[in-house]
Amino acid sequence: MELGNSTVKTHFFLLGFSDHPELQSVLFAVFLSIYSVTLMGNLGMILLITASPPLHTPVYFFLHILSFVDACCFSVIATKLFVGLISDKKTISYNGCSAQLHFLCCLVDTESFILTVMAYDQYIAICNPLLYTIIMSKRICCQLAIGAFLGGTMNSVIHTTNTFHLSFCSSEINHFFCDICPLFSLSCTDTYTHDVVLVVFASLVEALCLLTVLLSYTLIIAAILKTGSADGRRKGFSTCASHLTMVSIYHGTLIFIYLCPSAGHSLDIDKVTSVFYTLIIPMLNPLIYSLRNKDVKNAFRKMISRKFFLKKG
């Protein structure tokens, strides 16, 4: 059916990496390996935290949620990504595309809020250790987690509605999942107003999260520098390094894709960059937080030891 110069779309075509057909098999193997590590790492982290009473603390409560979000983030796009790489069936329904965009935006924004809450948790633990259990009570932690999901959901509804109010002239999405910028590029009409809505709400989320993280770590660094011993300063910086590194990579990628002028980079570059926050970071999070965390490694050793003795008995 025709509506002016546009056609009512029932399906879209995810072009993915079809411009490099010689790499399809290699990319399938690489992405499947990444997905396997992502699922095992994040689900393993969830099970370990759930089964280990010493890890039932606020910081691991939020890490538990982060692992859940990371496992879901890749899973939202996995099916269409893998099918598109091994077959010519690259279609996704209009409603399926809308749902994929909604859930991915929700999870991405929720992760931003959870990473911010984790920075605040670090600040309380280091700068107000005597009040830590009172400030970060179970009730407050649950409220912060629910607030993160609600914030992610509300922002996602805004972006999804804003995007699918457009009229699309083409059905070929130059991406491996339904994302905002590639869908904007298919519009038959001027997207200025929609671009403004995207930038305003994305900027609000980024500003809120980054300012909170920046303030938290400024106060944390000031407190660490006041520590008398060099060993204390080393431990303090080591505790924060993993989280600060992941926050920098994660938000840097999002700012590059959604807030930098679209004329400054192509959709092909956005496609490659998107691999970082949808595939690479969800895989790295459990590895970094486990390999650099003594409590997690001790809990893992105890779990393995219990299973070994149970089998032996």
- Any idea how many domains? 1
| SSE sequence, one letter per element | EEEHHEHHHEHHHHH
Strand order of the largest sheet: 4-3-5
Distance between the termini: 70 Å
Number of helices: 10
Given this structure, which CATH class is correct?
Mainly Alpha
CATH superfamily: Rhodopsin 7-helix transmembrane proteins
CATH topology: Rhopdopsin 7-helix transmembrane proteins
Describe the structure.
- This protein has a single domain, classed as Rhopdopsin 7-helix transmembrane proteins, CATH 1.20.1070.10.
- It is mainly alpha-helical and 313 residues long.
- The strands form two sheets. The chain has a three-stranded mixed β-sheet with strand order 4-3-5. It has a two-stranded antiparallel ribbon with strand order 1-2.
- Strand 1 and strand 2 form a beta hairpin.
- It is 74% helix and 4% strand.
- The chain is built from ten helices and five strands.
Write the layout of secondary structure elements.
Layout: E1 2-3, E2 6-7, E3 11-14, H1 24-51, H2 58-86, E4 91-93, H3 94-127, H4 132-135, H5 138-163, E5 172-173, H6 180-184, H7 192-225, H8 230-258, H9 267-291, H10 294-312
Parallel strand pairs: 3-5
Antiparallel strand pairs: 1-2, 3-4
Protein name: Olfactory receptor 5I1-like
Keywords: G-protein coupled receptor, Membrane, Receptor, Transducer, Transmembrane, Transmembrane helix
Main location: membrane
